[in-house]
Design brief:
With 116 residues, this protein is mainly beta. The protein contains no helices and 11 strands. The strands form 2 sheets. Strands 2, 4, 5, 6, 9, 10 and 11 form a 7-stranded mixed sheet that branches. It has a 4-stranded antiparallel sheet with strand order 1-3-8-7, with no helix packed on it. The protein starts with a strand and ends with a strand.
Length: 116
Amino acid sequence: QVQLVESGGGLVQPGGSLRLSCAGNGFTFSRANMKWYRQVPGMERELVAYIPSAGSDTIYADSVKGRFTISRDNVKNTVYLQMYSLKPDDTAVYYCRAVTTTGAYWGQGTQVTVSS
């Protein structure tokens, strides 16, 4: 059974940093393309960052370029989203997604709130 478990969300002041983690099991993590999305109420889920199985050629949404970094550890079966210079507009539920040869899967999400 595929599981994706996000952690690391919370409340942070504008300009602060957070690191989100997403641990995967039940599939061959090293072969999966991994993505981070975010969603605010009433809006569609937005792709934030992407990292392929090989770990190179990452892609970011324009709104987070230069502030967020996606990375992965294929030994720990974990993908990370390091977020710097956070803004109130970054407030959302953040989800990780695994795209494998057998299907695509979502985590349960972790809330990030940027507020003073």
